[in-house]
């Protein structure tokens, strides 16, 4: 199976619409891939908090339309990264809640899944207060593997990935806008999630600078033993890797650590 991770450079001088069209062209160039992955909030920049509300769009908005067509034109499964989604209002007001929402398209351009990010970053500011939290784990069944979908800060919460594995995930896809100053955490956590879940991890970050925050780049593909199959540098690039989905089952059979999980442990005595 071939995957292409497009590590997009977010230039604040480039309009959102121009970036959509440019990224769509990059997706179309990956027609030989089976799966293409884009980063988190690449339309606005993950740290451009002031742009979230202004650039928010409905689920089936401009990015949806452009990416659906790009997936269909290339004939690929496309994890189109995430967008600032403006959900429909539930109380009759003009504006509904904002979500950090990932979109996954089939090779025919149909929406296969949407995932609203569960863990929002910011420690009571930024994304954590501007966007609502999702509440559902999302998997997507491909012919060769089952994807488990997470986003950026989710990577720090291993219980989410355990839930995805319990739901059948074999390949964990993590788009992100991860800052350069914590790049060592990015690679460490990607490898840890692969090892502990005996799954592939495809983690796609952004390049450039978002609202003054330099991005880590270094998109990475890790196999179920924790070995790095490919890693990008810091600039905009397409990271393409061939991997064998059957290695997940083989790894879990050869080293059946997941069978030794102890669930429902009693709380410690006080």
From TrEMBL:
Looking up PROSITE patterns in the UniProt record yields: CN_HYDROLASE (PS50263), UPF0012 (PS01227)
Q: Which residues form a coiled coil?
A: none
Q: Which UniProt keywords apply?
A: Hydrolase
- One function term, GO molecular function aspect: hydrolase activity
Q: Which domain of life is it from?
A: Bacteria
Transmembrane ranges, per UniProt, are none
Q: Which InterPro entries does UniProt cross-reference here?
A: C-N_Hydrolase (IPR003010), C-N_Hydrolase_sf (IPR036526), UPF0012_CS (IPR001110)
Q: Where is the CN hydrolase domain?
A: 1-245
Q: Which family does it belong to?
A: Belongs to the carbon-nitrogen hydrolase superfamily. NIT1/NIT2 family.
Q: What is this protein called?
A: Hydrolase
């Amino acid at each position: 199976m071939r995957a292409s991770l497009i590590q997009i450079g977010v230039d604040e001088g480039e309009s959102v619409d121009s970036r959509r069209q440019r990224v769509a062209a990059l997706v179309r160039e990956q027609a030989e891939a089976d799966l293409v992955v884009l980063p988190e909030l690449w339309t606005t920049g993950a740290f451009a908090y002031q742009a979230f509300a202004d650039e928010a769009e409905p689920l089936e908005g401009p990015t949806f339309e452009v990416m659906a067509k790009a997936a269909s034109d290339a004939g690929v499964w496309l994890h189109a990264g995430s967008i600032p989604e403006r959900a429909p209002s539930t109380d009759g007001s003009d504006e509904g809640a904002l979500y950090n929402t990932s979109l996954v398209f089939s090779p025919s351009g149909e929406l296969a899944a949407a995932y609203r990010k569960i863990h929002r970053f910011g420690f009571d500011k930024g994304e954590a207060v501007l966007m609502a939290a999702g509440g559902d784990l999302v998997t997507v069944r491909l012919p060769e593997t089952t994807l488990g979908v997470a986003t950026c800060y989710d990577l720090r919460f291993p219980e989410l990935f355990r839930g995805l594995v319990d739901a059948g995930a074999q390949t964990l896809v993590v788009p992100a806008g991860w800052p350069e100053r914590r790049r060592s955490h990015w690679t460490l956590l990607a490898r840890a999630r692969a090892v502990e879940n005996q799954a592939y991890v495809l983690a796609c970050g952004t390049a450039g600078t978002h609202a003054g925050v330099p991005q880590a780049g270094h998109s990475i593909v890790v196999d179920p033993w924790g070995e790095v199959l490919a890693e990008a540098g810091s600039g905009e690039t397409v990271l393409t890797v061939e991997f064998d989905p059957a290695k997940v089952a083989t790894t879990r059979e050869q080293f059946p650590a997941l069978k030794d999980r102890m669930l429902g442990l009693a709380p410690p005595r006080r």
